[in-house]
Amino acid sequence: MKRNISVSIIGGSGYAGGELLRLLLFHPNVKVLQVTSRQFAGQLVSRAHPNLRKISNLIFCKQDELLKCDLLFLALPNGISMGYIKEIKNKAEKIIDLGADFRLKDKNTFATWYKKQHEAPDLLPEFTYGIAELHRSELKNAKYVACAGCEAMVSILTLLPLVKHKIIESKNIIIDAKMSSSQGGNTPSMSSHHPERHGVVRSYKPVDHRHSAEIEQELALYSKNIQVSVTATTIEMVRGLLVTIHTQPRPGITEKDIWKAYRSCYGSEPFIRIVKEAEGIYRYPEPKILTGTNYCDIGFVLSTRESRLVAIGAIDNLGKGTAGQAIQAMNIMYGLDEKTGLEFPGLHPI
Ligand SMILES: NC(=O)c1ccc[n+]([C@@H]2O[C@H](COP(=O)([O-])OP(=O)(O)OC[C@H]3O[C@@H](n4cnc5c(N)ncnc54)[C@H](OP(=O)(O)O)[C@@H]3O)[C@@H](O)[C@H]2O)c1
Predict the structure, then answer these.
(1) Are residue 84 and residue 229 in the same domain, yes or no?
(2) CB 21 near ligand 1, within 6 Å
(3) Interval 247-269: pLDDT, tens
(4) What does the longest C-alpha to C-alpha distance in the chain come to?
(5) 248 and 191 part of one domain
(6) Contacts of 244 (CB under 8 A, 6+ apart)
(7) Which pLDDT score is estimated for 2?
(8) What's 231's domain CATH number?
(9) Is 150 designated active site?
(10) Residue 147 Ramachandran class (φ > 0 left, ψ -120 to 50 alpha, else beta)
């Protein structure tokens, strides 16, 4: 098959860049042209990503060696791409940014949550938010895409049907997120040092998590005044993300109404599965079996006694949360079958 879309990755030595590369190297319509790294320039990509040994002979290059390509993926830490974008945007027709810089539409909201002024505010309106399930029609013609953050991705997908179909009240939505270590990227720190990280259940961000802004921005497309509170806890897991979302159902809501809402939003979505079983150990979503996949599993439980609806969402933070999300968006941007290159079903047992 002809590999006719030429792509390059900036920041390719990181975890998100590595996952992009793993997927893109097997994508039938893509040719990976260049991958940049400052630390590894001149060395094989497998130096940073050992799983790619004997799979790719690509050599990391420096950013100033970038050639023109069709699509550029930016896999840089948050706050970097807004400074680079004007310099590199002539290198590609289309750009997909995996970081946080272009997710929020409003520069003041960005300044509030990221505690700095935006460096390219004029470009904010040109970016389409990367969640295919919400923005499929805009993605078809998008030039620039900002991928959602991983907590935002799984929280938005889990909540959307409940908000859209008026199943829950708009306030007191508590998102309890269990995070893995790869979400922090590949730069070591004291808190990622093995004796300090191993075995932890550590409150990372009990309130005011930045992804609250993205979640509220996107859910506002379906209902005004949605307010969420995200509590993030890091646990003993390398990949994966689970959100347990506590909500208040509107009066009279039944389990049937909730099934109906999820089925009507996601019945034909290729990467969303409703997981709610009466028996077995995998009755609700679990990130472990989603490792390396682009799936988002969603489940729920309604307690009439407690007047509470708990919705549960799971993803691989580097899959649907980042690289898988980006490739699904790319497939739509280039008129390909959305599932191309993303059909790995995961492993069991793992
Ligand atoms: N990790 C996740 O689960 C996850 C989930 C959702 C979204 N994301 C987003 O994806 C992006 C990348 O995340 P990541 O986890 O892959 O981070 P990472 O592991 O820290 O990788 C980022 C890479 O960028 C390069 N880099 C760092 N500072 C740079 C600079 N000033 N200029 C040029 N290159 C620089 C580094 O490579 P060299 O030093 O070799 O150049 C590094 O390997 C972030 O914006 C993050 O928000 C990540």
Answers:
(1) no
(2) no
(3) 999 999 999 999 999 999 999 99
(4) 63
(5) yes
(6) 175, 176, 178, 310, 311, 312
(7) 55
(8) 3.30.360.10
(9) yes
(10) beta
Q: What is the number of helices (H) and of strands (E) in the chain? A: 9, 13
Query: Could you tell me if 282 and 275 are in contact, meaning their C-beta atoms sit under 8 angstroms apart?
Result: yes
Instruction: Give 302 Cα–ligand 1 centroid separation in angstroms.
Output: 39
Residue 38 CA: nearest ligand 1 atom is 41
- In this structure, the answer to whether residues 326 and 308 fall within a common structural domain is no
Domain span holding position 300: 151-317
The Cα 151–Cα 273 span in angstroms is: 18
Does residue 139 sit in the same domain as residue 167?
A: no
> How many structural domains comprise the chain?
2
Distance CA(45)–CA(48), nearest Å, equals 6
| Distance in angstroms (rounded) separating the CA atoms of residues 8 and 70 | 8
184 CA → ligand 1 middle, Å: 9
Percent of the chain at pLDDT above 90?
99
pLDDT in tens, 21-50: 999 999 999 999 999 999 999 999 999 999
Ligand 1 within 6 A of 325 CB? Answer: no
Residue nearest to atom 17 of ligand 1 (CA): 185
Residue type present at position 336: L
Residue owning tokens 């060395």: 43
CATH number where 137 lies: 3.40.50.720
165 and 223 co-located in one domain: yes
**Rounded (5°) CA angle 36-40-45:** 70
User: How far away, in angstroms, is 138 Cα from ligand 1 center?
Assistant: 26
User: Hey, what are 103's tokens?
Assistant: 């997710």
For residues 158 and 190, membership in a common domain is answered with yes
Q: Quick check: 69 and 4 in contact, CB under 8 A?
A: no
What size, in residues, is the chain? 350
Query: Which member of 61, 147, 150, 296 is catalytic?
Result: 150
Whose structure tokens read 């932890």?
200
